[in-house]
Protein: cysteine desulfurase
Organism: Rhodosorus marinus
Amino acid sequence: MAFVGGLGVVGGSRSPGLTCRPRRSRAIVWNVAVEGKPAIDRGAFPILEQEINGKPLVYFDSAATSQKPQSVIDTLLDYYKSANSNVHRGAHSLSARATDLYEGARDDIRDFVNAEHREEIIYTKNASEAINLVAVSWGSQNISKGDEIILTVMEHHSNLVPWQFLAERTGAVLKFVPLNSTGSGMDMEVFHSLLSDKTKLVSCGHISNVLGCCNPVEEIIAAAHAKGAKVVLDACQSVPHMTVDVQALDCDFLVASGHKMCGPTGIGFLYGKKDILEEMPPFMGGGEMIADVFMEYSTYAELPHKFEPGTPAIGEAIGLGAAVQYLNKIGMDKIHQYETEIGEYLYKRLSEFEEVKIYGPETQRAALCAFQIEGIHPSDLSVMLDLEGVAIRAGNHCTQPLHTALGEAGSARASLYFYNTFDEVDTFIEALKSAVDVLGGKLTKK
Ligand SMILES: Cc1ncc(COP(=O)(O)O)c(C=O)c1O
Ligand SMILES: *[C@@H]1O[C@H](CO)[C@@H](O)[C@H](O)[C@H]1NC(C)=O
Ligand SMILES: *[C@@H]1O[C@H](CO)[C@@H](O)[C@H](O)[C@H]1NC(C)=O
Ligand SMILES: *[C@@H]1O[C@H](CO)[C@@H](O)[C@H](O)[C@H]1NC(C)=O
């Protein structure tokens, strides 16, 4: 078999519940933490070299948005200084330069997720727009009354609300895969039992932004396809952290946002299989997405422009291309390896205390921990940690149904990226101890 390896697959034996398949035949193994290992290319992130409230910044909120390396910042500056112009329209040199950069970034993204064709990459403002595009455009022709759409209870609101709209509009039915008995991942038995001939679509997250689990997407995709259903993968939390290969996965659509992968805000992308995108009607009307316009009707541009109305976020797209080049230069396998190690270290340090409850699986997790501390409100905790220079997030992290299923209104979340250090994890733990103390709680060593 070409692909052994994958998350949770150590030594080459396939365990169907735990595969996030790496591109090409490189096995990715979740390793134990190697304490003290230096972060990857931290010096490329100027924003990290500052003090917040008199303390060195510890940025543990990368699942919300990542920081940007100097090369991405420089690319944005250079673009506005030397190439800014509208794309595809002008017959002048500057426009040609902007167009080359804009379309070049699309090639970089195509390569990054290993799409077969460049037209399969549609720029969107964000992942939310990408999901709405599928829900509105694909949904308008392919979903009708009584059809079933399967989601999981752990979806980000971005991968829930657009489907609610579609269901309201068409009379389709949303079905939800619940958490499994340990509450740390999706219940695959229920997933399989929900699949039927009525299932037209499965849309699920690859890596949960709260549980940190990696869903068995290959198993999900294969099972959905066996019923003739299409699959949307919300890869917002996987694409920035590991090799994701759309051809190996065989997903029909995939969405990601640029700002979580070292790129600018205001840019994301949709990957869709070409034959499916070709059948889909445009999502929004306007300039750039048309071929010919008459008074009463228009004909549409070819892919990908059919789905990119108006002047695009040109600088942002080029910035995302620079981000992808940057990540490639480091290597996604190296990033994933380091994050696995520092993620385990974070989990281990947080698990030292009786009063801390961490959500998600014990092993094979992303480098993030959503947690509760007995008697402490997550928001109070984040305010206290901020005074120590530590940036974490508190709230429901746009997953209210998941928190309801966990029996909580919200949680605190520390989320890391390859530029974070093991020392920062220690600083976070020390800050946590004093914050909990000030807030009248306690942390007892197990
Ligand atoms: C899993 C997941 N899906 C979707 C989103 C939404 O992404 P965007 O803000 O680009 O629409 C996020 C991030 O907020 C996320 O973590
Ligand atoms: C989706 O709709 C298009 C256009 O009507 C049709 O050609 C295609 O076969 C449909 N696909 C599925 C999976 O229903
Ligand atoms: C629940 O899901 C998590 C994450 O996928 C997994 O680690 C765990 O083994 C599962 N538990 C059960 C009981 O299936
Ligand atoms: C996300 O995309 C939608 C749809 O294009 C857009 O209306 C919204 O402003 C975008 N959000 C941000 C923060 O860019």
The chain has two domains: 7-68+331-438, 72-328.
